[in-house]
Amino acid sequence: MRNIIFMLLTACLLMSAPAMAAGENSALKIGVVDMQVVATDSEPAKAAKKQMESKFGKERKELEKQGEALKKKAEALKDPKASEEKKLAFIRSKQELDQKTRNFMRKVEQEELTLRQDMVKRVFSATYEVARAKGFDFVVDITAGGVLYAETSMDLTKDVLEEVNKQFKADKKDKK
Questions:
Q1: What is the pLDDT of residues 87-107, one digit of tens each?
Q2: What Å distances lie between residue 154 and 90, 125, 128, CA to CA?
Q3: Nearest Cα residue to 63 out of 13, 35, 104, 21
Q4: pLDDT of amino acid 83
Q5: What is the pLDDT of residue 149?
Q6: What does the alpha-carbon distance between residue 55 and residue 31 come to, in Å, rounded to a whole number?
Q7: What's residue 148's pLDDT?
Q8: Domains and CATH numbers, the chain
Q9: HEC sequence for the chain
Q10: Residue 52 to residues 60, 107, 136, Cα–Cα distance (Å)
Q11: More confident residue, 8 or 37
Q12: d(CA 67, CA 94)
């Protein structure tokens, strides 16, 4: 997804180059943002992590505990004297745990997708606000893999992070 966006932005830049060359006085102002930093260090990212832990932590621990219990049962079944009935019960228990784990993972993935979509909206909104306020014409995600060097004056990561946090706090106030 990021690579596609980066390629589209690069194509737009290349197409606009002749127009920029025609107007010698207008210099293109390009900025970079480390989206990975914003996505991990921002207040909404930290809040989402807490939300996921509180929502799914107990269930995850319970599944881990059941997995450990099954490992102990598996050790006991290595004994050649173990009955076929116990082996079948173990297999059923393992299948049940596998199914529970798959269902749990689906729930977690769905919730993460929702949270990621919300985060992407926040980051794009904040990037737009910062770029517009600082007069940048073009902003590139430095983690997308296309930027090998950028002057520190072009780095908007800190500003975007602050804007994301500001918008998050404003949203929290509006909800109250």
A1: 888 889 999 999 999 999 999
A2: 60, 18, 15
A3: 104
A4: 78
A5: 76
A6: 37
A7: 67
A8: 2-175 (3.30.910.20)
A9: CHHHHHHHHHHHHHHHHHHHHHCCCCCCCEEEECHHHHHHHCHHHHHHHHHHHHHHHHHHHHHHHHHHHHHHHHHHHCCCCCCHHHHHHHHHHHHHHHHHHHHHHHHHHHHHHHHHHHHHHHHHHHHHHHHHHHCCCEEEEHHHCCCCCCCHHHECHHHHHHHHHHHHHHHHHHHC
A10: 11, 11, 35
A11: 37
A12: 8
The two structure tokens encoding residue 72: 């102990």
Q: How far apart are CA 156 and CA 128, in angstroms?
A: 11
- Whether the CB-CB separation of 74 and 90 falls below 8 Å is answered with yes
Contacts of 7 (CB under 8 A, 6+ apart): none
Q: What is the gyration radius of the CA atoms in the chain, in angstroms? A: 25
